[in-house]
Amino acid sequence: MALPHVRIMSRRQCCLCDEMKAVVEMLAGAGHCSWETVDVDRDKGLLVRYGMDVPVLLIDGEEAFRHRVAPDDLRRALQTLTDGVQS
User: Fold this and answer.
1) 5-86: CATH number
2) Angle at which helices 15-29 and 71-86 pack, to 10 degrees?
């Protein structure tokens, strides 16, 4: 079974983005998900879509959190997704 994939839409020099990355990195390190970060400044379409409204956390392509995420909230969201796949 593949792990859920988390994508963080972010910008450089964004303290909220750094906080979200730390939470995701911790859970990915514990084997809950794979992850990547996308710098919206590098893509005009993404910049128009997200602009200053970052970070945005996507799980398997679906928006799950915006601006902040607590470790327990993300863990539950990932577990719910994993449990749904196993059923």
Assistant:
1) 3.40.30.10
2) 50
